[in-house]
Amino acid sequence: MKKIHAHIVPAVAIVLATTSIFGCSSHPSGQPVRSDSTLTVTLSKATTSNAGEINLSGQLVSAQTASISTRVMGYITAIRVKVGDKVERGQPLANIASQDIAAKRAQADAALTQAVAALESAKKDYERYKILFSQQSASQKELDNMTLQYRSAQAQVAAAKEMRKEADANMAYANLNAPFSGIITQKMADAGSMASPGMPILMLERTGSYQVNAYATESQISMLRTGMALTVAIGSANKTLNAAISEISRSAENTGGQYLIKANIPDNEAAGLFPGSYVNVSIPVKTKSNSAGGQVLVPISAIVHQDELNGIYTVSNDNRAMLRWLRLGKIQGDKVEVLSGLSSNDAFISSADGRLYNGAPVKVK
User: Does domain 39-51+293-364 match CATH 3.40.190.10?
Assistant: First the structure.
C-alpha cells in the first residue's frame, strides 16, 4: 500500500502544477488581458456656439437645371451625350424619329406654294379690275368681289406660313439641343426607347454657378431676412465660403413644415465644387439676449455609443483614457450638442492610432 501511495503523490503534484499554470494565463473576468501599449491620441476642445447663431444642414445645387424632353411622340433614334459630358449651348443632344413631322412639313410647304400662286393670281385680277373700274368698264360689285378674293388669298398665304412654322417647331422638338452650356447629370432613356411629350430624357445643369438650399424651422424663419450674411462649410471640398441669403420661402405646406432658404455661391468660389454635396450653414442672428452661455458642441465622430449610453474619451491626470458619459441634444451638421457631462473648452480625444478603452495608457500627440 505504501508503494501505491508513493506513485500517486507525484501524479497529483503534476496535475496541480499544470492547473496553476493555465489558471495564471486567464483574466479573472474571462476576458483577454488588454495590451498595455501606449496609444498616441489627438486632443480637441469642445466649442461653444454663439447663442445668436442658427446652424442648418443644406445641399449644394446647380443654380440652373433643365429637364431635356420633347413635345412629340416617337422613337429615340440617337442620344449623342452621356452622363458627365460637358456641352455647349446649341449642341445636339438627342434625336427623335420624325418621319410624320417631315411629312406634315412637306404638306405645309405644298400648301404654302399653292397659296402664294393663288395670291399672285388674285393680285393680278384685283389690279386689272381697279383699272377697269377707273375706266368705268367694271362695276363696283365686280371690284368688290376681286378685292375680297385678293384679301382671301392673302389670308390663305398667312395661314399656310403659320402651318409651316408649326411644322418647323415640331421638327425642332425632334432634334433636341442644349439650351445653355453645362454638364449632363442624368440620362433617363436610351436609343430605341419611345419618347412621349414631357418625358425627361436628359438632365442638364449649368456649371460654375451654384447655390445652397437649406431648410429652417418655424422658430428660426422669423429671424431670417433676405440679404443676411452666412457661412457655408462644404466638407467634400474642405472649404468654408461666405454668402448671403438670396431667397426665402414663406410657405412650408409642401416641405414638411420646413422653410426653404437659398444662398448663391460666388462664381469665383465655384472651382472644385460638386452639385449634391451636403453642407453646413451658419447664420448669425440678433437675439434679445446674446450673452447666454450658448451650446457646447463636439464632433459626432468622437462620440462613443454603448447600448443606450453615449460618451466621449478624455485624458486623466495619469495619462490614461477615461470614458466620460454625456447627455446629448440636437445634431447640428457634423456636430452634436452636449447638454451635460462636458463643459466648453474641455479637452477630449478626437482620434487615436489604435482602439481606445477605459484606462488605456495614452500619449498626447
Answer: no
